[in-house]
Design goal:
Largest sheet: 7 strands, mixed
Helix content: 25-40%
Radius of gyration: 21 Å
Low-confidence stretches: none
Structural class: alpha/beta
Order of helices and strands: EHEHEEEEEHEHEHEHEEEEEEHEH
Distance between the termini: 13 Å
CATH superfamily of the largest domain: FAD/NAD(P)-binding domain
CATH architecture of the largest domain: 3-Layer(bba) Sandwich
Number of strands: 17
């Protein structure tokens, strides 16, 4: 039986692996190969990269670092079931391979609710469509920003961008309703946020950057589009064991990142809290250290 199975090979999962390796623990990281961080064109919120770093480059650097200590720990595949096995857990991979461990760290992340717009994947790669103004709002200071949303959470995000980065912000509902009270609308508009509720007739993402949008009421040219349609935490494996979730669907954790299921930890986007890479890494360090200090002494050879 392993000391720990880490499910997910994004920034959180790889950080957990690094700590477990340096604690001389027996573990594997099972990675389905599609970390959300890989789509980040460039992040400037990771303190040790003064010129920014792409998500793909960050993950490559983390894997190189981890392999210095545990060259065989990375397993490519998808965990499709998680169950109790004695006092520990059994993780079943697609294809039938099983791993048994005393503890499990879920680093499965979250999935952005996709925008139903043509060419969105290319626009994300080019930085025209974005998802996190905390991560990269500074780079669009003073520009024309569109925020796609249907609820008060996205309206608050638009206000955050307008007041923090002095940007010209327009909320786009793309013809859908905006679920916000009159007071919430007035507050956003008092901070300069405009509301465009008409259906989108045409979108042209220019080769030179920016996006041209056409509505029945007229045309709008924007430098960047932010999607504020929400996140869907990939929490199914934990929910199947009865783990508690918050109202967003993220897993509730204690101060050690342990879920309501003893021995099952959640780190990064699947756990409640601010969705940031450095916080995900911090989650992983906390969880791995708690596991080391409370796991039976089964050392790797």
């Amino acid at each position: 039986m392993l000391d720990c199975i880490v499910i997910g090979g994004g920034p959180a999962g790889l950080t957990a692996g690094l700590y477990l390796a340096r604690f001389n623990r027996a573990f594997v990281i099972v990675d389905a190969g599609a970390p959300r961080a890989a789509a980040i064109p460039k992040s400037h919120n990771i303190p040790v990269f003064p010129h920014g770093v792409s998500g793909a480059d960050l993950l490559d650097r983390q894997r190189v670092t981890l392999r210095r200590y545990a060259d065989q720990c990375l397993v490519q595949g998808r965990i499709v079931a998680l169950s109790r096995c004695g006092e520990g857990f059994r993780a079943q991979m697609l294809g039938g391979r099983n791993f048994d461990a005393q503890r499990v760290i879920l680093a499965t992340g979250a999935q952005d609710v996709e925008i139903a717009l043509p060419g969105v994947n290319d626009a994300v790669r080019r930085g025209i469509v974005r998802y996190c103004p905390i991560c990269d709002g500074y780079e669009v200071s003073g520009k024309k920003i569109g925020v796609i949303t249907h609820d008060v959470h996205g309206l608050s995000e638009a206000s955050f961008i307008a007041r923090t980065y002095r940007a010209e912000v327009t909320v786009l509902t793309l013809g859908g309703p905006l679920k916000a009270s009159d007071e919430e609308l007035e507050r956003a508009q008092s901070q300069g946020v405009k509301i465009q509720s008409a259906p989108l007739l045409m979108l042209d993402i220019g080769s030179d950057g920016g996006a041209a949008l056409e509505f029945a009421s007229g045309a709008l040219r924007l430098d960047v589009l932010y999607s504020a349609l929400g996140l869907e935490p990939r929490a199914e494996l934990a929910v199947g064991l009865g783990a508690a979730q918050d109202e967003s669907g993220a897993l509730k954790t204690d101060k050690h990142q342990q879920t309501s299921i003893e021995g099952l930890y959640a780190v990064g986007g699947v756990a409640e809290g601010l969705d940031q890479i450095v916080i995900a890494m911090g989650h992983a360090a906390i969880a791995a250290t708690h596991i080391h200090n409370h796991c039976a002494e089964i050392w790797k050879e």
